[in-house]
From TrEMBL:
<dbReference type="InterPro" id="IPR050472">
    <property type="entry name" value="Anth_synth/Amidotransfase"/>
</dbReference>
<keyword id="KW-0436">Ligase</keyword>
<feature type="binding site">
    <location>
        <position position="244"/>
    </location>
    <ligand>
        <name>L-glutamine</name>
    </ligand>
</feature>
<dbReference type="InterPro" id="IPR006274">
    <property type="entry name" value="CarbamoylP_synth_ssu"/>
</dbReference>
<dbReference type="Pfam" id="PF00117">
    <property type="entry name" value="GATase"/>
</dbReference>
<comment type="function">
    <text>Small subunit of the glutamine-dependent carbamoyl phosphate synthetase (CPSase). CPSase catalyzes the formation of carbamoyl phosphate from the ammonia moiety of glutamine, carbonate, and phosphate donated by ATP, constituting the first step of 2 biosynthetic pathways, one leading to arginine and/or urea and the other to pyrimidine nucleotides. The small subunit (glutamine amidotransferase) binds and cleaves glutamine to supply the large subunit with the substrate ammonia.</text>
</comment>
<feature type="active site">
    <location>
        <position position="329"/>
    </location>
</feature>
<dbReference type="Pfam" id="PF00988">
    <property type="entry name" value="CPSase_sm_chain"/>
</dbReference>
<keyword id="KW-0665">Pyrimidine biosynthesis</keyword>
<feature type="binding site">
    <location>
        <position position="218"/>
    </location>
    <ligand>
        <name>L-glutamine</name>
    </ligand>
</feature>
<keyword id="KW-0028">Amino-acid biosynthesis</keyword>
<keyword id="KW-0547">Nucleotide-binding</keyword>
<feature type="active site" description="Nucleophile">
    <location>
        <position position="243"/>
    </location>
</feature>
<keyword id="KW-0315">Glutamine amidotransferase</keyword>
<keyword id="KW-0055">Arginine biosynthesis</keyword>
<comment type="similarity">
    <text>Belongs to the CarA family.</text>
</comment>
<feature type="binding site">
    <location>
        <position position="216"/>
    </location>
    <ligand>
        <name>L-glutamine</name>
    </ligand>
</feature>
Length: 361
């Protein structure tokens, strides 16, 4: 079926429509990863967004049971140049077309994604919608795009992700990629996942050694009601924030966040670790950033993006609290930053009063 992506500035990008066919509006963003599309499709941070892949051929290794970051896709649409309908991989269970049709997510293929990405880069991110060509006269209501995305994607109930491990981490789920829990488990932690709206008392009752604040969708300012709890927990426990978790920590301690022109979404964003002066290649997916202006004295910048200088990491001057804008759990992507899970373990170890043996490589 012929379909079209219509941008809010009126630009139209025709293609072939498969998957879900109802009108789905969202913020149109692009991702530069060559692989990792299954992790992108299942990353809850993309809720409410239409993701355009810049790499021309997507889907050639199918989707499997192991690489999902969540049980379902949350994104509003997926746009590719070419989508492979005959994938080949020993783990492959579904094609891109089958997976997105099953979850009723529109898949628009055969799109001139190079032209589309140029428009987004020039104008900054734009809202848009995908529809069958004949329905493209309907006026979408962009004002109706949801703002309570974190509460939509967060787990409704607490659950134990892993039951063994020396340190107990409560993972506050703002839309967590499963690989954060997997990485913590691999590092030797017992992980309990709790809803985004959990109170400090509920978290404290779990007797955690540390708090992990996850990634998640939307504008961090939409989560203002969660900030007092984030601050209370960070003042009491070793705390590690990733992406949205980093932004919420920053806001909770008095920093500001701002929307970026078109964000960072890809598997090879260079970040400078200011302490070692080494460059890490990182996986990123964010449209907001912590602003340099008005950064409180208590927060020290630990990492910066090499391309645009934006804040990529923070630590608290006095508390056992640190956070990064990129994804050390790196799915998809490189693993340069995985050492941060060891750093988190070290903070929990210190809090327990044990001697620290650094495993940093
Ligand atoms: N991956 C994330 O956690 C993204 C954080 C936030 N939604 C942003 O786009 O900046």
């Amino acid at each position: 079926m012929k379909g079209v992506l219509v941008l809010e500035n009126g630009r139209r990008f025709p293609g072939l429509l498969a998957g879900g066919e109802g009108m789905k509006a969202g913020e149109v963003v692009f991702h530069t990863g060559m692989t990792g599309y299954q992790e992108i499709l299942t990353d809850p941070s993309y809720a409410g967004q239409i993701v355009v892949m810049t790499y021309p051929l997507i889907g050639n290794y199918g989707l499997n049971a192991q690489d999902a970051e969540a049980k379902r896709p949350w994104l509003a649409g997926f746009v590719t140049g070419e989508a492979c309908s005959l994938p080949n991989h020993y783990l492959q269970e579904k094609t891109l077309h089958e997976y997105l049709a099953h979850h009723e997510v529109p898949l628009l293929t055969d799109v001139d994604t190079r032209a589309l990405v140029r428009v987004i880069r020039e104008h900054g991110s734009l809202k848009g919608y995908i529809v069958p060509v004949e329905a493209a006269t309907e006026e979408p209501d962009f004002s109706a795009l949801p703002r309570d995305l974190v509460k939509k994607v967060s787990t409704p109930i607490s659950y134990s992700f892993s039951a063994e491990g020396e340190y107990h981490v409560v993972l506050l789920d703002f839309g967590a990629k499963e690989n954060i829990a997997r990485s913590l488990t691999t590092a030797g932690c017992r992980v309990t996942v709790m809803p985004a709206t959990s109170t400090a008392e509920q978290v404290r009752a779990m007797r955690p050694d540390g708090i992990m604040l996850s990634n998640g969708p939307g504008d961090p300012l939409d989560c203002a009601d969660l900030l007092p709890t984030v601050k209370e927990l960070a003042e009491e426990f070793p705390t590690f924030g990733i992406c949205l978790g980093h932004q919420l920590l920053a806001l909770a301690f008095g920093a500001r966040t701002e929307k970026m022109r078109f964000g960072h979404r890809g598997s090879n964003h260079p970040v400078r670790d200011l302490q070692s002066d080494k460059i890490w290649i990182t996986s990123q997916n964010h449209g907001y950033t912590v602003a340099d202006a008005g950064l409180p004295d208590d927060l020290i910048v630990t990492h910066r993006n090499v391309n645009d200088g934006s804040v990529e990491g923070l630590k608290h001057r006095d508390l056992a609290v640190f956070s990064v804008q990129f994804h050390p759990e790196a799915c998809p992507g490189p693993q340069d930053a995985q050492v941060l899970f060891e750093d988190f373990l070290s903070l929990m170890k210190e809090r327990k009063g044990q001697h620290l043996v650094t495993t940093t490589v």
